[in-house]
Amino acid sequence: MILRFPNLDAFQLAITSGVVPEAVWLTSAESVLDEDGSVWIKSGGKLPRNSARELKQLGVAVVRSLPKAEAINLCCWLQAIPLHACPQPAIGDVSPHVNEFRDNTTVLFHLSTEKNLADLVSEMLRLGNDRQSFRYLQTLGRQPFDNRQNLPVEGGSSSLLRVIGPPYYSLLRAIDQTHRLTAPCHEKETGKASAPGEITAYVESSPRVWTQYGFTHPLGARVTPPAGKLLLIKPDHSWLFIKEAPFRDIYESAEFLVPNVETEWIDQALESKIKVPLSLTRGNLNESAEMWVLSKNGLAQIENKIINACDDELLKRLAFAVCESEDQEPCVILRVRPSRKPPPVLVLDGLRLRSYLGIPNLFLPIGQRLHPPLRRDAVTRLLAPQSQNIVWVEPVEASRDERQHSQVSFLPQSIADVAFRPLTDWVEYVLDHEEKPLKAWMASYRFNFDSFKCDDDHQPEETKPQSKPNKRLGNEKKADQSDSSAATQKFDSLEENKNQNDFKLADGDFEVMEREPSQLQFALNSIEEEFFELDVALDSPSRQPLWREMATIHSQLDHQLDTTICWSNVIWNSKDGANRSKDCEAWLACEVTCSRLQTFGVGDLDRHFKNRSTRPLDSSLVVAFLVWAANEDEIPEGLTSRLNEAAQFIERQEQLMPVRTSWLAWNALFKLSGNDTLLLARARDRILQRLFDHGLPAEYDMPSFMRARGIGQTDRFSTLFAHVQSLQGLIHDWIEEPVAGSDPKTKVYADLMFAFGLAKLGEVSRAKSVMTQARDLLTSTDAIHHWLGNAYEYRVTQALNGQSTKLQFSDHLLKRLKSMQKMDRYKVDRLRGLSRILEPHQRINAFTRWHQRHADDLDKQLSSLSDMTDRDELNATVTDLLRSTQTESDKYGRVLAIAMELAPRLGEDFAKGLFDEVLVWLNEEAPTMARANLLQKSIYVAAHFGRVDIVQSFVHLFENSLANIVSEYLTLQSNYHSLNKEKVDAIESLFTESFRGLRKLGLREEIGRLYSGVESLIEKHEPYAKKQRQAKNTKADIDATRPLRLLLCVASGWYYFGQDQRAGVIVEEVRSLLLSADMTPIEQKDLACAYVNCVSHAPVDYAVGMIKELFQCENDTRTLDNIKDNMTTSSHFSISQLHLIEATVLALVSDEFSLNDECRRWLDEDEFLVRHKIHHDVRKATDK
Amino acid sequence: MAAGTEIQDLTFDQLQQEAEEIRARINRFRTSLGRFFVNKQSLIDLMVVAAIAQEPLLLVGPPGTAKSDLVLKFKDALGIESDDYFEYMLTRFTEPSEIIGPIDINELRGGRYIRREQGKLPTAKLAFLDEIFKSNSAILNILLTIINERKFYQDGVPQPVGLKVLFAAANEIPEHGELSALKDRFVLKAESLSVQGDYFEELIDAGLNSEVYKNLNQTPWIEGHASLADFEKANRYLTSQFGGAGAAVAAGKTDRELFFPEDVFREFQRVVKTLVREDKIFISDRKLVKLYKLFRVRSWIFSGGAVTRDDLRLLMYLGESPDEMALLREKVPMLLGE
Lengths: 1184, 338
Fold this sequence. Notes:
The complex is a heterodimer of chains A (1184) and B (338). Chain A is an alpha+beta fold. Among the domains of chain A are: 2-80; 86-253, no CATH class; 282-426, no CATH class; 495-709, no CATH class. Chain A has an eight-stranded mixed sheet with strand order 14-13-11-10-7-9-8-15. By secondary structure, chain B is α/β, with parallel strands linked by helices. Chain B has two domains: 24-215, P-loop containing nucleotide triphosphate hydrolases (Rossmann fold), CATH 3.40.50; 240-336, no CATH class. Chains A and B meet through helix 5 of A and helix 12 of B.
């Protein structure tokens, strides 16, 4: 069949339209391209009948023979279609083109000779492209489908080089060659038409079909080479089929010649070290001297220029050592003692030195430094390797060379650190004249008052044995020791009939110097100042002598509590040995002296054990005796049989003595009882519970001079009482009862809350009076008022008795609660749910019983746990629940949360097992809320048990989840309703409780990190909201208040760190919103509660003012006007108002309120040390 | 050659007879001059190539990198008289009269706008214009005409200038569009870089010597190896060759076919295309032609024969900006494989 197509377009159309079936055009054929553009095809294939008609429509004619022109052999009809040239950018044309060559274009080079391959490969390697792979090809005879029938096939070998992103420079080898060979002038010159080139470049146009670079086949998509073959298409209709085979990497065929043989160097040790002489060279002249070496007239200089000329404050800051120089003249070395203050400026004639590179025991002359400058550790190793020696360098007289180079040799000198003594030790102030006693004017005593002490929380003093009366003018009874005249007393030996094992103050054993109280007080003040200024940890050994001195002076001034606190600290930090025994003895001596006794023995113990109303003084005396006895080599006779009573006594008195003192007592009992570990463990549990409930109270555990710094007065409770009273009045006026028709008792409940606060402040009579009044008003047939009145009374009584207010209610109260009607129970639970006085730990959900029929079994089981009182039963139930829900992550998480909440009740062993489970669960994917909830409880409990390592793991998880938690919080806030409120509260309490827990463990850095993280996350999330809030004179969008409650938690943290200004920014922002914004009652109330909690951490005066402002009422206008509710409970009380009032009361009586940040940090650090030691001692005891 | 014969009257054969000798002298000249500078031999070679090809050369570099010194010594070594040399530092305020001479007042009275060009640029054979890009538009116009057409207008009548060699210097090449025409006139722009990094000691020694020569008024670089006339003859000789004289006529081939091997020519083409496509370097058609000339001159100086790949290194000096110059300095040798 021979067909004549009028033109190429018709030919293409016939193929693409299917007029010529695929089966036909896939067959081989012969083709002639006529000069007029027509295409002649001679094919062996048969066309279907209808094709002929359609071909005719296309203008295709069936002819008998091909024209007389050179025919092209075709493997298929597509071969007849010539390639189209792709437009290439002209030189200088920098615009992008469709077919632009790209860096990752794979190009296949077909190279006719090996030399071409080598040239091309080396060129591309030189230009940085090694993504090349190659194949060698051997032509096996005639290629039937080459371009011209009459041309011989290229024989021999050729190569294919596949390159990814070849350099354009190399590609040009093929492109230019193509242009040259196909240029009309080429045929004219060579007489040949398009001869095969040496290098041809192809680009893959479709799988296994490679078209010469710069050309495309119009129907290239239809070209499919046979399986296992590649097809290379050239513009001259030649189609080259190549068997497919893997390409080999170019590195396989390339041999890279290393120009020279490798030279191997062998490591050798240095024959000798490089000697570098050290010298002194010019340094900074502006440094202050910290040490002076006075080799000439040292003693005279000290006396004249320092002792005679300077005040003793300066003398206290200096230490000295005296050594003998070569010429027998004493050489004095004067040094400034470590302090936060800058070194004093002293004009002395000697060598002035300062510490070098912060090495505490190395000193260099002022204005000089080491040359060459070495690293700190190298200098230490060379010059001051032994930390117990103080080393200084003295410049040696310089040689001429050295002077020229301003480098001077030096002589290191050293002296032992212990050789230094305080300069004040060397000074003895003497009076030139003897004292001439004068008769004092009688009325002078009227003005010689001692410091006022409020004893209303102490038992009335019993008559105590009088010591030798001091001579006084008149018959004034001695009020206390501070009025005694100056005299030196020594205690005589004890009475003969006392037990030999009793503690006796012997001659010369303990000498008390009675001096004028003002002198003693003055001495005490300066020691306290020195103590305060020491910039070292609370348990640093450098504080020990100061504790001792303070303890001694306090006992002389008859400051009982401070004596006990100071001695407790001395014993706490002293190591076993002779020093400890001495300290124990000294403590006991002081307590005996304070008690106006001469002796104290085992027999005296009975009197104290039997006395049910023992004074704190007597408790301290007993403890001091026990501690002394435990340190003696032999236990005093008769003591062993009294140990049980002693334990009971200590247990009774525990709450009224400093925590340290009580632990020392238990430790002593532990030793005396032959290491009764159970005794110690139980004491630990009680003390930890006490710390858990109250923390370390400033009144019992902080020396008075530190407390005074907290509030400026020694008794902060008086000040707080005044604030509480004034606020009570304000709040009474502020409370707005709902509409008539009901008889709510909001004011009464407010009074009960204040009663609780007063009880916490130790205002016994006032608290009792308020409570009684309020309770009487609530006594009625109304079950709700009745129960709540009793519940508040229960809590107030606990506070008055110094008991923990965090324990469960009595069984009687709980039984009554269970038997209440559903609605009544609901109202009670609503208040319990919000009240931290009634339910400090548990989160009571009033809706639980209403939703019980909708709750799942697990919810029912979990809600019943809070009602269980039997500890073993509770332990077993929780353990069963954990086991049964282990395979269901969601339920397991809920059980873990409740178990953690109950862990403090169930003990440390239970909690230990739970921590690991919680860590595992938290490390898995968990919903954000569940994670936040569990984290909060876990950190709280781990802090309670003093597990720093566990807390840090939780904190780490907390930090990782911080972004999600904050995001969840903000999302929940945007949908503010009761269901989300619980979750929002949970997240807030996560931060506040974690803060508290981390404080107790001294993890300040972690606190800072968490709060900084929250602040920046909120700022990132809510820039619009912040702008809104900061825009003045505009009503804030309610959404703008979303992050404020969380920011208030952060602000509390800043107050804790003393960053009042930073916290103040947030507080001021909230304040203005609170007082001006149009919020729903619940939102305003919640924000106000958070605000009050936050400002309680601020300085007292500021905080009180801010809180009072909220409750101002003028002309019947309340500042905070929107806090009211019409809930179900409003028949009995306004729950919103009570929530705010309770938050206010609790804030006022919290430690944070009255103590400044220094004192808070002291207490936190002290509590951490106490917990640490307690755990350490118990572990040591159990290991034995 | 008869005395007094002008160079333009010399025939190709006459020039051909002297060609080798001239080439040897020029080579001695350039190598000798290089001894008085540190690491400036490539610049001197370029100056020689540009001078023979009578193409202007621009030296670019920071102050104190021997740009002016190169030209001065080059001029001295060629023995150019002061009448045949013109140098000027251009500023924004430079007036045409400072370059091409003041208006002749007497002629002006006669109604003719004639400048007194003696001792100015139009009469010089070798000119050095420092800070050429700081000139104003009036100067630019004059310079373009002189450089391009080798003439300037006296009273509206074009007059050929005697300028054979033009060197210009600049601290930096500005980006202003209005200067692009002037920039394009300089086919070759070479950087004169500081050498203190690699040749500190040599710089101190050579610099000290230079100071001594200056203070003692010594000019040891004037050794009389070659003269400007040699350069002019070389130019004439090569120009004749370009036109098909000599071997080309005999072989019936073009200059390119005789003196520019196919593979080197392909290389030239490839490098140009690569630079244009990959680095967007603009090379005008005019520049391509002039480059050919410069390749031929260089190959004649260095090898006396056909252009080699080494001669293609002149492509390094095509940059129009400091970035392009730095790029070409690295890329051209890399492409050429050296």
